Amino acid sequence: MRVKDKYINPFTDFGFKKLFGSEPNKDLLVDFLNELLQKKTGQIIDLTYLPPEQLGRHIDNRKAIFDIYCENEYGERFIVELQKAKQNYFKDRSIYYSTFPIQQQAEKGQWDFKLNAIYTVGILDFVFDEDKEDQDVFHHEVKLIDQSTKRVFYDKLTYIYLEMPKFTKTENELETHFDKWLYILRNLENLTNRPKKLQEKIFGKLFEQAEIANYTDQEYAEYEESLKVYRDLKNVIDTAFDEGKAEGLAEGLAEGVEKGKAVGLAEGIEKGLAQGIEKGLAEGMEKGKDAAIRLTALQLKQEGIPHETIAKVTGLTIKIIDELS
Description:
By secondary structure, this protein is α/β, with parallel strands linked by helices. The chain has 2 domains: 13-215, no CATH class; 222-323, no CATH class. It contains 9 helices and 8 strands. The chain has helices spanning 13-20, 26-37, 90-103, 177-187, 201-210, 217-263, 266-302, 307-314, 318-323; strands spanning 47-49, 53-54, 64-65, 68-72, 77-83, 118-124, 139-145, 152-163. A 6-stranded mixed β-sheet has the order 1-4-5-6-8-7, with helices on both faces. A two-stranded antiparallel sheet has the order 2-3. Strand 5 (77-83), helix 3 (90-103) and strand 6 form a beta-alpha-beta unit. Helix 6 (217-263) runs antiparallel to helix 7 (266-302). The longest helix has 47 residues, at 217-263.
C-alpha cells in the first residue's frame, strides 16, 4: 500500500465524488438519499446526474457549481453539497443555489407553474455557530412553515443539513441503516477494516470503492492532491480562528481593564474585566472566522486552485480573491 491510510477521506472533493458522484457508484447515492429522506411518496429507484456547473439566466449573473446535482425518475432535483469549512453567508448561498433548479423547470409558452420537489442536502464538517450549545440535534430538515399554524406551507422545497461533528455514536451504538451511513462518513478515513456491524451489501461496495490500494496511479495522485487541500484548509482555519480569538480576547481584556479603572473600584475592575472577556471572545470568534476565510482563500490561490472554486468554498467574491496577496 502506498499510504498509511486504508480508506479515503470522504470529506475531500475526490473522495466525495468518487463515492457518490460517479455513474458506477450511483447506487451508493440512491441508498444514502433514501435513508436520509425517508420519503413517504416512494423511494428513489434511479438518478440521472446533471451538469454540476449552472449558469444564471443572463450572462452577467453569478453561476453555481454544485458538488453533485441529480434528478430522480419523478423529476425531483437533488443538490448534494459537502461543506468542509464555515463560510460567510453559507445559508444564503444554500438558498441561492436552490433557485437554479426552480428556474430550470420553467416551460416556454403556456405553463401552469407546477414545480417538482427540490432537495438541498448539506453534509457539513462543522457546526453552525448558533447550534454549538445544542449537541443533541445534528440533523436539520428545513421547510417553509406557516408561523400561525406551525404546519408546512410548501412541501416541495426542503433543505437538509447534517452537522457531522455532532454525530458521535460508536459502532456498538449503531441502530439504524442511516446511523451506519453517518458512522461511515464520520469515521471512514480512520478505519482499518470493515466494521462487523456494516455487513450490508451496499456497504461492501462502498468499502471496496474507498480502498486506496485499488486506485490507479492517476487516481491516487488526484486523491493525494485533494487530501492536501482539505488538510491545508482545516489547518489554516484552525490557526486563524485561534489567532483571531486570542487577538479579540486581548483587546477585550484591555478595554475591560480601562473600564474598571475609570470606575476606580475593585468591583468596577471586576465587572469591566467580565464584560471585556465576553466581548473579546465574541469579537475574537468573528475575527478568527474572517481571517480564516481570507487565509484559506490565499492559500488555495497559491496552490493554483481555480478562483471560482475558491469562491465556492469560501463565499468570497472573485474580486476579493483576485486582490489577495
